[in-house]
Amino acid sequence: MGAVVILYKPDLTEARALLGSLARQVDLVCVIDNSPLSMYSPLTLSEHGNLAFHHYPNNLGIATAQNEGLKQLIEAGCKYALLFDQDSQFETDFVARMTYVFQKTKRQNLKGFAAIGPSLVCAFTQEIVRPRIQTEIERFDDVSSVPQIIASGMMIDLDHLQQVGFKDDSLFIDGVDHEWCWRAREHGFSIGLALNIFMLHRLGDGRRKFAGIPFKVGSPVRLYYQFRNIFILSRRSYVPLYWKLRNFAVMPLRIFANSILLPNRMIRLRFMTRGILDGMRNRSGPLRENAKK
């Protein structure tokens, strides 16, 4: 069992607690730090002999960083891989319980699950996150089949990774986890949600409401990838129709909210506009590469 943790300018106390907890629960932890200046080094993490630390100051993006970690776990002979962001919190028996649920699905001959994830508890509201639109497809004993899960807390069966493929590097960051889940389902696999295992997770940098609709608040540059990748993913046949319709329907509201209600309004508007234009041109990869064009 191995884990991949992606860091980007992390809170050192939170990240150290996460890495320490994981190091005690899995055989190998691959740490990918995308921060321009890393506060970590192999020496600062030397108290854990099963941590492999890698620093990429140019920022590989979430997809490429996860792929780097997954390849290392495969080379190390791991059967399962857990993916984590830096701001997730979980119990000391989290990995054991997730492994038990995953293996239980195999013993019960349920539909082949490519990955399962825990039920999320929002760090801002302390409430369990339950999707309103993309509801469960089928419920079993303690796991339900769902259209997609987020990357943090996702446990992947590495035997299925060769057929599904690695994460999509071209997306760079936003939509990477959902796209992989939809692609896995296109290949005949299921995506599971463990109903009785919970993980505290920070979704975005905050929460705001506009016209009664709650939305996540993130950094201005994330808006570029969010808007651009809506156009990129909408061209793909395996991406659910409800996702395409919902994102295009709320796009005007998101533009208004980010350019009127939030700080750095003009910066946000520029990133959204650039994302829309590059999405229409089907430009992918990191923003810095598209800026050169």
UniProtKB/TrEMBL annotation:
The UniProt record lists the keyword Transferase: yes
Classification via SUPFAM superfamilies: Nucleotide-diphospho-sugar transferases
InterPro entries: Nucleotide-diphossugar_trans (IPR029044)
UniProtKB keywords: Glycosyltransferase, Transferase
Family: Belongs to the glycosyltransferase 2 family.
Alphabetized PANTHER family for the sequence: GALACTOFURANOSYLTRANSFERASE GLFT2, RHAMNOSYLTRANSFERASE WBBL
Full protein name: Glycosyltransferase family 2 protein
Gene source species: Bowmanella yangjiangensis
Lineage of source species: Bacteria, Pseudomonadati, Pseudomonadota, Gammaproteobacteria, Alteromonadales
